[in-house]
Amino acid sequence: MERKIGLLGGGQLGQMLCEAANPLGAKIWVLDAAGSPAKQINARTSHVDGSFTDPEKIRELARQVDILTVEIEHVDTYVLEEIAERGVEVTASDGSKRMKTVEVQPSWKTIRTIQDKYLQKDHLTQAGVETAISKAIEGTSLEAVGRELGYPFMLKSRKDAYDGRGNYPVKSPADISDALEALAGKSLYAEKWANFRLELAVMVVKTDNDTSDCGKSTIAYSVVETVHEDSVCKLVYAPPRDVSVLVQQQAQDLARKAVGSFPGKGVFGVELFLLPDGELIVNEIAPRPHNSGHWTIEGCPTMSQFKSQLLAILGLMPSFPNSTIPAMFPATVMLNILGGKTQESHNKLMDMAIAIPTGALHMYGKESKPGRKIGHITVVGSSLSEAEALMAPLITVADDIRA
Ligand code: ADP
Ligand code: MG
User: Who lines ligand 1 at CB under 6 A?
Assistant: First the structure.
């Protein structure tokens, strides 16, 4: 645990990464705005205040650490490439300068490919991983795209998208001008509509830089079902509510194949669509801990997704039988807390979570804004129906406070 970790981004994922780091004795330096959630729980005078897209700030962070990682993919990958390939210049106390080696995990190549959703889909297709059909739209009209993909189709921003911000469902040719206006100024691509039965997700840990043998280098958590509302994750069910063991196994295999194709180490979130005919396709991949893996804090208490991220980038991840990390409780349900109409809207939800003996409340220390993810609640149960019954009244309140 000697190696110091530098983290680009200090939001809730960074905060939970720091929570996992403390008991391990791992030390994290954070680059993000002053007072960001990760900094609130990690006292250090030498955190870097600034943006994870600012090359000089990233170099400043790199000078203090041995390994850089991310909690967000929307970072400057060119400076990460420079640091990974050439190191970062440091000045000794006598004024002499030298280059210091700093590892970047996952690889800057992986972050660069994944941060552009269109390049990501292209990469997956070339790796033989089924994904939604994607079309570049440069040099063609959206009317022509609509004729080819059919309606509805999804117009997506290639970069900087999150929580559905960057997506516009185009239901008919009449929506095209509104879609282009809503996503004006962004580089776009179009995706064939996936008429999925369910959305699933699998967290995968990659333990080797190599991409040649994903069987050896990837470990999959149990499959979960994710429920989105207005393109924002609302609920996560571990295990999924109505998915055969065979399909769950196929989802893990597909997720491992997808993650195995990217260089570098770390934890990855793989979002999947389960189509009505039983076919699975990858929606998208995140090269970092992911909302669909928060359940692991309580569901896999000795190996949460955050601990895995740390152990994987440090090269310390233990091996698991069958390359899977099983859930340690029969059922876990997670509900996101989104800011409501007022600053206090979610207080009742917090009280209800605290009152559940097998429940866990996680507030991120973020100011409440309508629709903003400010916390989450997890309940564990001895069966899915028990966990669902515990969560049901909280879902009703979450629906009531929706902004
Ligand atoms: P984000 O970066 O916001 O997570 P996603 O591409 O995952 O963006 O889209 C958010 C949600 O929008 C998905 O979880 C899914 O519910 C819906 N969605 C995305 N792409 C499609 C598609 N091709 N067809 C149907 N629904 C989609
Ligand atoms: Mg998504």
Answer: 132, 154, 161-164, 167, 191, 193-194, 199, 228, 231, 271, 283-284
